[in-house]
């Protein structure tokens, strides 16, 4: 079996390596070609370009590099047609990969896209382009699969690799011991984001909320896992003159351990909310951005919720506070509903454990199974893959 794989960033390299392992278990003699990083290379990929080739962020940067990216896509198209793989799989990087998938699909080559773009949230008109580009969309989340099914795009829900990675049963006390924190005092984990802008917009409010909360819960512990050395430096500057410096524990990384140790989590919207859900911890999701960005986002985003736990459940399980609603008092009050009500908190933890189980499906194996069925039958089966 010959498989053409194109990944565009580190997360895609991790996903691609897991998929290659699953495909090799099914097809020990499989050959792989395309673009990937060190993990995919270790699994046997012949990569024509470095992984970083497609890692271009921001409109200005994309425009600057557009001629080079067009040249790379043309080369990959010619190379794939010459090599004649059984299937071409684009891993994330939708702006690049969907165009390549469309160009190859019109020649009769089966194409798969692994990791749905957020077409269900904004620019929903892209679904028409996706339908023209892929024979199968492999999604991590059930509501994504439902969206594609409504638009008659062949789809398989394969589960989320992060749900496979995190255990269905975790140990709060062991995590606290590892972090050197009290086993009995209430604990709040605060994750203000991995980007500089998020620290700038959210950091002061999150620290104010921690102070507000500690005034009402005098024994409260607060741990902030810094996402990177740069974010730690920015947080240290904020804490230097802030009352929260007296009780905040600032750590390097260790976000999963911090969330597992916590009774509740305060975080920016994003993947961290999914991770907190998979650690089975109640949370408050808050987000602030530039006024112009918020004005535009309100008009473009088509979903009722912004956080993945609510989107997965298709109901409001966790508070979402955005822009002016994300005041320190509103955040503090929302956190008190978790920290002050053990029954409510435990019921939510149990619900998150159930949602975790629905996502823990062996994503790489299920993706490989869907690809096998597509190659064997020319289309995905009508019935869901069990």
From TrEMBL:
The first-level EC class reads transferase
Q: Which SUPFAM superfamilies match?
A: UDP-Glycosyltransferase/glycogen phosphorylase
A GO term, aspect molecular function? phospholipid binding
Q: What is its EC number?
A: 2.4.1.182
Give GO terms for biological process: lipid A biosynthetic process
Which reaction(s) does its UniProt entry say it catalyses?
a lipid X + a UDP-2-N,3-O-bis[(3R)-3-hydroxyacyl]-alpha-D-glucosamine = a lipid A disaccharide + UDP + H(+)
Q: Name the InterPro entries for this protein.
A: Glyco_trans_19
Pathway, according to UniProt? Bacterial outer membrane biogenesis; LPS lipid A biosynthesis
**GO CC annotations, alphabetized:** membrane
Record's Pfam families?
LpxB (PF02684)
Q: Which PANTHER family match?
A: LIPID-A-DISACCHARIDE SYNTHASE, LIPID-A-DISACCHARIDE SYNTHASE, MITOCHONDRIAL-RELATED
**Family statement:** Belongs to the LpxB family.
NCBIfam families cross-referenced by the UniProt entry: lpxB
| Name used for this protein in its record | Lipid-A-disaccharide synthase
- Organism of origin is Chromohalobacter marismortui
């Amino acid at each position: 079996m010959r498989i053409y794989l194109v990944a565009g960033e580190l997360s895609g390299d991790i996903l691609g390596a897991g998929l290659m392992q699953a495909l090799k278990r099914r097809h020990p003699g499989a050959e792989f070609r395309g673009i990937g990083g060190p993990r995919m290379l270790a699994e046997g990929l012949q990569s024509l370009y470095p992984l970083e080739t497609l890692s271009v962020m921001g409109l200005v940067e994309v425009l600057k590099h557009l001629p080079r990216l067009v040249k790379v896509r043309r080369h990959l198209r010619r190379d794939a047609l010459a090599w004649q793989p059984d299937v071409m799989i684009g891993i994330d990087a939708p702006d690049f990969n969907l165009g390549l998938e469309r160009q190859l699909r019109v020649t009769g080559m089966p194409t798969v896209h692994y990791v749905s773009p957020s077409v269900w949230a904004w620019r929903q008109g892209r679904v028409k382009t996706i339908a023209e580009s892929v024979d199968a969309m492999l999604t991590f989340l059930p509501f994504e699969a439902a969206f594609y099914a409504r638009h008659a795009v062949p789809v398989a829900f394969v589960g989320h690799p992060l749900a496979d990675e995190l255990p269905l049963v975790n140990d709060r006390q062991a995590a606290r011991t590892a972090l050197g924190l009290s086993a009995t005092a209430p604990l709040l984990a605060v994750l203000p984001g991995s980007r500089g802008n998020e620290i700038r917009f959210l950091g002061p409010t999150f620290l104010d909320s921690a102070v507000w909360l500690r005034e009402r819960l005098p024994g409260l512990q607060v741990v902030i896992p810094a996402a990177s050395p740069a974010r730690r430096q920015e947080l240290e500057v904020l804490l230097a003159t802030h009352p929260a410096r007296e009780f905040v524990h600032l750590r390097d990384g260790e976000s999963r351990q911090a969330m597992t140790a916590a009774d509740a989590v305060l975080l920016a919207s994003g993947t961290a909310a999914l991770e907190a859900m998979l650690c089975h911890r109640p949370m408050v999701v808050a987000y602030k951005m530039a006024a112009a960005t918020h004005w535009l986002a309100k008009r473009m985003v088509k979903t009722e919720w912004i956080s993945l736990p609510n989107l997965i459940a298709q109901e409001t399980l966790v508070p979402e506070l955005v822009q002016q609603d994300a005041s320190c008092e509103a955040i503090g009050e929302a956190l008190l509903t978790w920290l002050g009500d053990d029954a409510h908190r435990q019921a939510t933890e149990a619900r998150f454990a159930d949602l975790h189980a629905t996502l823990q499906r062996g994503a790489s194996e299920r993706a490989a199974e869907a690809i096998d069925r597509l190659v064997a039958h020319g289309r995905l089966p009508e019935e869901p893959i069990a």
